[in-house]
Amino acid sequence: MEVIVTPTPETAASAAAQAVLAGLPAGKPPVLGLATGSSPLGLYAELAAAAAAGRVDFSAAKGFALDEYVGLPAGHPQSYRQVLIHEVCDVIGLPLTGLNVPDGTGATDAALEAGAAAYDAAIREAGGVDVQILGIGANGHVGFNEPGSSLSSRTRVKRLAAGTRRDNARFFADDADVPTHCITQGLGTVLDARRLVLIATGSAKAAAIAAAVEGPLSASCPGSILQWHSDAVVVVDETAAARLSNREYYDDAARGLALTP
What we know:
identical protein binding, seven-stranded parallel β-sheet, hydrolase, Glucosamine6P_isomerase
């Protein structure tokens, strides 16, 4: 795992974007795993700047969302499909035809589970995710894999933790409007991506980052799965890094492979 600590949220966004770009394949359209939330917004702006400068082309790319709410009607402004249209497709130039989001509109448990299985199959048919962009919740959740999620789980229906619903209530007119369930990529699905890039900023994420990076590999902190991946990059600002114990080493390692003290 590579841990990069930068001074500000803006420099974290730039460093995370560089980590994404470095993981994209040459000679074929990329397949991105897409996270929502405030943490990756600056990263997406940096990718847009790279596209405008001709450093990358997302016009034939595919994107796979980490998750979607269950029960929101098609076109609901807080559905993650709509959020990703505005925050990713309209920003980096990812075509709408390339955007894939789990189907949370099924009327029965069986329909929702079938849609979840089909989503994993669609990722495989696309050749797998080249770079999965991640955020992390204050309780360590990745996607909507709440603490206690199986480390080998696949895309499935999950109930949202009460704390996650409280965190997301600001996006809805009333607390009662926040969905109680979601469909989320499983931790095993996330681990299938060839590169993971997690970005986190702010003091509210410091405990989760410390647990994910330096704590035990545990379902109690779903973000700790990054320790199990062969190519994971964690980018944080100073405040999100505040509880890291091995900071000196991370800073040394960030200097690269030059054979100097």
